[in-house]
Amino acid sequence: MEHILARAKKVTGDAEVFEVSSEETQVRFEANRLKQLQTNQTTSVALRIIKDGRIGYATTTGTGDADELVGNAVETAGFGTVARFQLPDTKEYPTVDIYDPAVESVSIKHMIHLGEEMVAAVTGHTPGIMCEAGASRGVITVRIINSRGGQAEYRKSFFSLDIEGNLIEETDMLFVGESESSCHPVSDFKEVTDLVLRQLDLAKKHASVPTRRLPVVFTPNGVGSALILPLMSALNGKMVLEGASPVGDKIGRKVFDKEFSLRDDPTIGYRPGSRPCDDEGVPSQRTRLIEKGVVKGFLYDLQTAALAGTRSTGNGSRNRGGLPAPSPSAFIVKPGKTSFDDMVADIKEGLVIEQLMGAEQGNILGGDFSGNVLLGYKVENGKIVGRVKDTMVSGNIYKILKDIAAVGSESRWISSFLRTPPIYCKGLAVSSKG
Amino acid sequence: MLDIDAAARSLAERIKKPRADYLEARFEESQTSHITYRGKGLESIGRATSGGGNVRALVKGGWGFTSFNSLDNLPDRVDLAVEQAQSAGRGKSRLAEIEPAVDEVPSGAAKNPVEIPLAEKKRLLDEYNEIIWSTPQIQTSTIGYSDSRKKVVFLNSEGSYITQERADVSLRLTAVAAKDGEVQQVGLSLGSRGDFSAIEGLHQDVEEMSRHAVELLSAPQARGGEYTVVLDPILAGVFVHEAFGHLSESDFVYENDRMRKIMKLGKQFGAKLLNIVDSAAEPGLRGSYKYDDEGVPAVKTYLIREGKLVGRLHSRETAAKMKEKPTGNARALNYRFPPIVRMTNTYIEPGSLSLDDMIADVKEGIYAKNWYGGMTSMEMFTFSAGEAYMIRNGKIAEALRPVMLTGNVFTTLKNIDAIGNDLDMNQGGGCGKGGQSPLPVSNGSPHIRIQKCLVGGA
Fold first, then answer.
1. Which residues have CB under 8 Å from A167's CB, separation 6+?
2. What sections of B195-315 are H helices per DSSP?
3. What is the pLDDT at residue A314?
4. Rounded mean pLDDT of A66-71?
5. Residues of A whose CB is below 8 A from B63
């Protein structure tokens, strides 16, 4: 890396080298049986330069050629965006615990065992179900150095378990599934499979739904599949800067229900979304986004923050190897006081939604979502009575999160990126066949 | 630059004496460039090079797969993949027989799109962005352009040694209109197999797209419920991909007895007028190739013929286990992934009706065009239109907000009752499955009409 920085400094004063390496091992089960063992080793290097005030950018993998990398960055700088920021000279970062050496010593044999146990738990409960499952472990190393003396380095371990079951009866197909991830080894597979068994129990019977406005409880998975994407977009500093965020001009104003609070938090110990700094070497911080329904802040990287006249929130992220752009590290929705059971008990006729398929295909910017209830249940007189199918649910997050019936008391991590309780919404448009 | 040819040659002899039932290696190097705009300004411009390889081994029905981007110690990588396969294997290895092939396949693109000067690409995108911004009430725009050229060397223990090159160009433009807290957007997606001229000369389309985004601000939302819908070729292409394409990928079928029963060849899925094809053998489309990532030659596969299920998409393993012929549909996004069963160019064959014939006797319905996306869970699927209009008394009437449609494979295909004569392949977009996204594919169809299609809405 140092040789790339030295080479870049010959052509321009400002340069930054970002290197990420990862080693991952996975065991995969298909059709209830062990199918594949897999290892992936990868290293990629990104060079960002500021030449004559403009940003140039190039990436390569493995032991790519330093001269070619610098040449590509210089060529793109000829057309690049005008840089408004300075690279950080930071060397000190907050301590965020994200590495557990125990992850690397989990044996393949044990990972296979975990997979077998998960499959056995689910097939033992529901004969005829076909499972795909997996266990995965790995380590990621990130290093950033720049020409202003800034440098950051961290190592992160990760471990995950996942299982998906598919049950076919005649032409009826049911999909259930859960996953769990951590920077520690995950040994309690039962937490994952118990959730799957509960889905199977609730989906055993079928129920029909009328086409009309109904109250809906989104489970943590449901919140993740229906409501989060529009919020990610609206709270992105870039969208705000362009005037494309519906809440961009509403800092300090109450836009959502007072029960709804949301923050971004990359500092929680041993969570895969955590890290001591972002992908530009800006120290991690907690960022308040929505507090008691009032819009409090947005997410920024260096360039967007400079254009907006504010400071980076440490959310510069290089998804897919591109230039840094604002992106959440981990969204945390604050839990409320109502239990899931109390929410269901409160509903005379309504739905519980666990997975909404296709909700991200709509007009995300405007907050609209619409999707097919891939996994969801009908509630009648305070009780879940069965699974609903061939049903669509539509809404707009700015309307439904403005007046929430209740926020749940039981929070759960959904993937590495979201921790949320269930959310009980008053009325959504439901359309159903027949 | 990695010398993938040398790496492949160094394994050529070793790979023919595997300590496994089957062994293969795949090496890849690629160059890409991208330009993105957000709003009036350029957001990101960059070039990337990438390279690496993988080894995959099969022992007693279990697979080992290892990927890397350092080409040192290749014999150790081979040993690792074999050891992994040994740990995973507990049954019997079965792969459909194919003729080993030794071949070199050029990209077919007249000019490598990555080497076109960035200035030339930027000039074209600037023109499009200016058109978007010259439309009143446009709040912002996004443009994503990328191109790539890649070379893949594949060799296996049966003596295949295939070098294939391919080039790819893709462009997505979005115009975002806003007024009084309302935000609406319309997008346009295009792509080609490396031919840059496929994305030139779109000025008029970009202007229409921008105008339409503004019109949507005052358009009403559809009422949710069942409608007679007419889909344009682009959206019908997404429909066939989601509604039936994924269900014909046999990796989901081959080890699942209940699924095999549902997907029995000869079963009636649609009316007699319905014919669905997947073919990587069509020349020059984004899903086209000569050999798949297991070295199997591409063929044209009928999935549905006269409404009946007649075929499905296979890897060598799924074909052998189902005792059917391999179709050359095992594809990997890049060297980091093992090949899995994927679609290529999927389309509904044309019928004889014009669009006017199709809507003439529709009293009230929805005409849905263009796409945002689509998803499937095999039985149920969704697909969303970028534009929608009411059909009233046989005429296309007022514009609606974009609609989301949903269907059930066991009823919706049977409800297709009219197929147009205007087949068109859409080259924009890509397909995602098993974490491998976006894979270049194309979808196509003529206009089609579906009775009783469920539409989400207010």
1. A126, A128, A129, A130, A173, A174, A176, A200
2. 203-216, 233-240, 257-262
3. 98
4. 93
5. 35-37
For the cut 80, the answer to whether the pLDDT of residue B372 exceeds it is no
* ipTM of predicted complex: 0.92
Q: CA–CA separation, B125 vs B128, rounded Å? A: 5
Number of Cβ atoms within 10 Å of the Cβ of A403: 13
Euclidean distance between CA atoms B131 and A342, whole angstroms: 54
pLDDT digits (tens, 9 = 90+) for A287-327: 999 999 999 999 999 999 999 999 999 999 997 678 999 99
Q: For A70, which residue in chain B has the nearest alpha carbon?
A: B47
Note the pLDDT of residue A63: 65
- Residue in chain B closest to A25 (alpha carbons) equals B66
Decide if pLDDT at B55 tops 90.
yes
Residues 246-265 on A with a CB inside 8 Å of B are 246
Residue A38 has pLDDT above 80, yes or no: yes
Which one of A35, A61, A246 has the shortest CB-CB distance to B69?
A61
Q: How many CB atoms lie within 10 A of CB A267?
A: 21
Q: Do A390 and B408 touch (CB under 8 A)?
A: yes
Nearest-CA distance B13 → chain A (Å): 24
Chain B residue closest in CA terms to A240:
B140
CA-CA distance, A241 to A417, in Å (whole number)? 24
Instruction: Say yes or no for a CB contact (<8 Å) between B336 and A36.
Output: no
pLDDT in tens, B227-247: 999 999 999 999 999 889 999
**Cβ–Cβ contact B39 with A under 8 A:** yes
CA distance B387 to B366: 10
Question: Would you place residue B428 in the very low, low, confident or very high pLDDT band (cuts 50, 70, 90)?
Answer: confident
Evaluate the omega torsion of the peptide bond into residue B18 and state whether it is cis, within 30 degrees of 0.
no
B43 interfaces chain A, CB cutoff of 8 Å: yes
Give dist(CA B396, CA A242) in Å, integer: 35
Cα dihedral B262, B268, B271, B272 sign: positive
Q: What is the pLDDT of residue B1?
A: 56
The nearest alpha carbon in chain B to A77 belongs to B45
Is B1 in CB contact (< 8 Å) with chain A?
Answer: yes
Q: Which residue has the tokens 């991952």?
A: A24
A394 touches chain B (CB under 8 A): yes
pLDDT digits (tens, 9 = 90+) for B283-331: 999 999 999 999 999 999 999 999 999 999 999 999 999 999 999 999 9
* Interchain proximity A34–B38, CB inside 8 Å: no
Instruction: For residue B456, give the nearest of A69, A166, A392 by CB distance.
Output: A392
Q: How far apart are the first and last CA of chain A?
A: 63
Non-local (6+) Cβ contacts of B323 within 8 A are none
Mean pLDDT on B14-25: 95
Phi, psi of A122 (to 5 degrees): -80, -45
A243 and B258 within 8 Å at the Cβ level: the answer is: no
Is the minimum CB–CB distance between B87 and chain A shorter than 8 Å?
Answer: yes
On whether any CB of chain B is under 8 Å from the CB of A104, the answer is: no
Buried b (16+ CB within 10 A) or exposed e, A126-158: beebbbbbbbbbbbbebbbbbbbebbbebebbb
pLDDT of residue B180: 81
Task: Output the average pLDDT for chain A.
Answer: 95
Residues of B in contact with A166 (CB under 8 A): 256
Whether pLDDT at B163 is above 60: yes
Contact predicate A31/B256, CB 8 Å: yes
Q: Hey, is the C-beta of A22 within 8 angstroms of any chain B C-beta?
A: no
Confidence check: pLDDT of B458 > 90: no
Is B458 near chain A, with CB under 8 Å? yes
A78: contact with B, CB 8 A cutoff: yes
Neighbouring CB atoms inside 10 A of B401's CB total: 21
CA–chain centroid gap for A109, Å, is 29
